Amino acid sequence: MKNIILLALLLITSLLPGCAPASNEIAGLSLRGGLQAWVDAPLDGSILTLPITYSLVCHGTDSSGVQALEFNVNEQVFAVVSNPDPGETLFNASQPWQPVDPGMYTIRCRVQNSVGEWSSYASAQVTVVAMTGTITPTLTFTPTETSTSTATSTSTPTPTAAVIIFTSQVSTHTFEYQHDCVPSPGEVTITAILSSTAGVKSVYLFFRLESSELGVTTEWNAGSPMTPGTGGYSSTVTWDDIPQLSQIQWSSAAFAYQFVVVDASNNILARSQVFRDVMLSPCD
User: Which of 110, 220, 254, 283 is at 20 to 30 A from 211, Cα to Cα?
Assistant: First the structure.
């Protein structure tokens, strides 16, 4: 009996080289969790008010490299974005979307790896409603004597769609704050890319924390000017730059942020939607 088992093992071993999967069959294996896509924005369950221009944001990963991301709205291909560096194992992209009619929309994304395989779809469902004159918080600027800008929170009707289309890029989708340990990473760099800079003097970054665990949404911070560069306007926020941190009581929260564009007279030209593609958590 032992001889029979040994013979069977030898036979299986001899056949393994011929039965090894082709490289494209194992391309999805990755320390990041394999060939996979995520919908970063909008969040599942979001409610958007018409008229609006919204940036759909997705990212995907694979150890073999990522060559494209597909955006899909209600099971119709909306856009396919090619990765300029298909050797990268992580790729994120965004697409401006202007829904026309109220209703339920399913936003889906999938990623294609370097050997042409597609991942399964990641999805988020959103509700688009018509503007009803509901009063929502917005941000206005008051010039000071030194011609700098400070921000105050007021209540105004939801505005019509902005002329400027905003795209956001972030250095990380998750960063940490100190909790008896060293945060890693302890900061996030956010870049605002504008479809047009005509008449733009400055871009300001505002942020707040939204904890679904606690049911807490903090006030907006005071706002800070972003640094212009060749790739857009950027700001780096470290965990100890967040004044609202004490309000989330060591829980995790979405780091929600918004861009506000002003002209030379400090009048608001446009506001972006609120992005929620970054999470803040206590370090372990």
Answer: 110
Is the same domain home to 171 and 273? yes
* Side chain identity at residue 202, one-letter code: S
Q: State pLDDT tens for residues 217-245.
A: 988 888 889 999 988 999 999 999 998 99
Do 267 and 168 fall into the same domain? Answer: yes
- Asked whether residue 22 is assigned to any structural domain, the reply reads no
Do 243 and 197 lie in one domain? The reply is yes
What residues have CB less than 8 Å from 221, skipping those under 6 apart? Answer: 206, 207, 208, 242, 243, 244
Q: Which of 109, 97, 117 is nearest to 48 (CA)?
A: 97
**Domain coverage including residue 267:** 135-282
Distance, in Å, from the CA atom of 166 to the CA atom of 242, rounded to the nearest integer, reads: 23
- For residue 106, the cross-strand partners are 125
Q: Is the pTM of this model over 0.90?
A: no
pLDDT in tens, 240-267: 999 899 898 889 999 999 998 888 888 8
How far apart (Å, rounded) are the C-alpha atoms in residues 17 and 252? 48
- Which residues face 128 on adjacent strands? 48, 103
Domain check: are 178 and 263 in the same one?
A: yes
* 181 lies in some domain: yes
Query: Quick check: 187 and 175 in contact, CB under 8 A?
Result: yes
